[in-house]
Amino acid sequence: MAESSGRGARRGRQARRESRAKAAPQAVAPYIKRKIPLTELLGEEGLAIIEANADTLLEEIGIEFRDDAEALALWKEAGADISGERVRFPKGMLRSIIKSAPARFTQHARNPTRSVEIGGDAMVFAPVYGPPFVSDLDQGRRYGTIEDFRNFAKLTYMLPYLHHAGGTLCEPVDLPVNKRHYDMLYSHIKYSDKAFMGSVTAPQRAEDSVRMAEILFGESFTDANTVLLNLINVNSPLVYDATMLGALKVYARHNQASVVSPFILAGAMSPVTAAGTLAQLLAEAMAGIALTQLIRPGVAVIFGAFVSSISMQSGAPTFGTPEGTLLLNGAAQLARRLNLPFRSGGSFTSSKVPDAQAAQESAQSMLATVLSGTNFVLHAAGWMEGGLCSSYEKLVMDADQLGMMHVLAEGIDFSEEGQAMDALREVGPGGHFLGAQHTQRNFETAFYRSSIADNNSYEQWDLDGRKDSAARANAQWKEMLDNYQPPPLDEALDEALLAFMAERKGSFPDSKF
After folding, report:
1. How far is CA 363 from each of CA 70, 220, 246, 321, 357, rounded to the nearest angstrom?
2. pLDDT tens column, 217-244
3. Residue (of 376, 107, 378, 106) closest to 227 by Cα position
4. What band does 1 get if pLDDT is binned at 50, 70 and 90?
5. pTM score, whole prediction
6. Which end of the chain, C or N, has fewer beta carbons within 10 A?
7. Is the peptide bond before 203 cis (omega within 30 degrees of 0)?
8. Is the pLDDT of residue 83 over 60?
């Protein structure tokens, strides 16, 4: 009888856990407004040294702007020294130009309640960006398809602690390279109502992204407001290529925000030291940021940084390392000194599966991201295999960790309820707080409750099937897709988007490049 009763209680607990797991993805969490102080690891002397070295690098060595006569002409008119494609900048020139960029801005979503603030004390989490492969426990690792992309768009929409839809959730390789951006953008618009990112793989694809945004938001609203982010990677060391420059110019002209991000694997694409890498990163970022202001003064822009150490044995990127934390934290401080929003960090790992290595490296990276005061966090969930793979299981596992970061960023509650003096008076010496009125009022929201972690006894875990975190995540994302309901989209807008896509796709042949 006792065993039967115990099993009944365990089944009841299991049902409650399953109910919470199903309910959690439907919730909505606004972007973070941090209430904890910044962690700053660099002092004034160190920051001044890095800034001086960046100025020297810009003046003596310079940066190449390849295959873009327009960019060179803009720099010449601004007073830079041009030698071929190499541009050298007088000391202080870039800082002066950058002053017109806003310290914070709003990126509007088609659902106004999902719009996000970027900069200041705000922190916005966006999912993984760019992998050609996808992975799940059932089918393993494989090339991504448009169906995978749609699935990730739906999951990102449903996960409450992802505030932003992101951009290239995976590469849908079953579609032509020169046309897949239409379906990717449409998926963001159709299956989610969060803010999203545009295409940067060719200037015309950037133009197409703006056009689709104009259909969705209206031309005048789009011209006056930020409705798209786009990721501009520097070809470190010290090179901007024609593709990235072309996309940057399109978005800047249309008043859309660029995330100007040097992509650096320290030891290969920058010096092996943190100070040397940060000087190079600052120089590269300032050059791209300033270019946006030459094109359209006042356009929103984000100081970005993707910086990782590498294995000196294999050359592969490494994550969750102390060097990575130092670089991320230093870059955040440099961005704040320019009065700019900052992008970096994420749930990084080199692991090939959602295992202990993936969890450890991602937790280290994300904690450093939050404590350093990052404003826009790309790759906050789903990143695996050094960015080559988008993982279904890791997406929901990481998103669960993001919920914990929400609680951390709130800091300690010092309200009267937070101080809990009535509970201390009620219980007194030798008692317990489980039945206290204060506990009864607050028990449902007092502590973060993970939808992934198993905190039960060994016996209960054994009875539930001995599942690890990845297996529980596998069940959760499938349940989420089964329960997915699309956000409403005006039929006329939907038809206009589909008509635009059909017209554009039919106007030129498919391409593999």
Report:
1. 43, 42, 36, 11, 10
2. 999 999 999 999 999 999 999 999 999 9
3. 107
4. very low
5. 0.93
6. N
7. no
8. yes
Pairing verdict, β 116-119 and 122-125: unpaired
Closest CA to 288 of 65, 119, 60: 65
DSSP per residue over 143-158, as a string? E--HHHHHHHHHHHHH
Sign of the torsion formed by the C-alpha atoms of 235, 238, 241 and 247: positive
Task: Please give the Cα distance from 391 to 353 (Å, whole number).
Answer: 8
Residue linked to tokens 């449903």: 158
- Enumerate the H helices of 348-410 as residue ranges: 356-371, 392-410
Task: Give, as one character, the DSSP assignment of residue 434.
Answer: T
Cα–Cα distance for residue pair 204/226, rounded to 1 Å: 19
Distance CA 118, CA 479 (A): 32
Mean of the per-residue pLDDT values of the chain:
94
Do 124 and 163 contact (CB within 8 A), yes or no? yes
Q: Is the pLDDT score of 13 beyond 60? A: no
CA distance 307 to 322: 12
**What pLDDT score was predicted for residue 27?**
60
Residues 6+ apart with CB under 8 A from 82: 72, 75, 76
Q: Could you tell me the CA-to-CA distances from 296 to 99, 256, 257, 290, 301 in Å, in that order?
A: 13, 10, 11, 10, 11
